[in-house]
């Protein structure tokens, strides 16, 4: 398949031009799996090139942080859905990792790759092509109405028998970080109406605590600067 990896502007100015590893790593893995992959970085590439590649692609993948980049990603994804309603939209990165159910409630989100995508993303592309194996990918969020979700009968059991998958998302406090919660995925599939979230890999708990710790430190720095 032809795959477009998209990295929107992470901030209004974005003076740094560091490599967008969040799309390069899974994109390279998709290349090694035999897919034709191209990349678009808003800090380096033109809008004209973006829409040329969007038309070319069979699947569009977006990496997004919460905040400014999320707004840019939503703007782009909405437009893609309007122009190309049959193209699957795959989201990865920090925001869909920690808010998969919220993300999947949006009509312009078909799949969420939760956590590291080097293995999950190529596997997702494989099952989109074959229609079998969605529920076997750890760290994948999807829904019954996802573009690209054309499942076998056994795949549909996830939604036709939701009582068999009572797992879910819970907020749990991080020890030593009062007032800060983390989202933790159960070790069993969670089904929320027409949305399914598969259990995550072992690195997500560490990543969640790390991001929470960084957020707490950033907040302290801002408060200290405000007092000067």
UniProtKB/TrEMBL annotation:
Query: Mind listing the GO molecular function terms for this protein?
Result: cobalamin binding; iron-sulfur cluster binding; metal ion binding
List the cofactors. [4Fe-4S] cluster
What keywords were assigned to this record? Answer: Iron, Iron-sulfur, Metal-binding, S-adenosyl-L-methionine
* Example of a GO cellular component annotation carried by this entry: cytosol
Where the record annotates domain B12-binding, the positions are 2-135
Q: What's this protein's name?
A: Radical SAM domain protein
Organism of origin is Candidatus Jorgensenbacteria bacterium GW2011_GWC1_48_8
Instruction: Please spell out the taxonomic lineage of the organism that makes this protein.
Output: Bacteria, Candidatus Joergenseniibacteriota
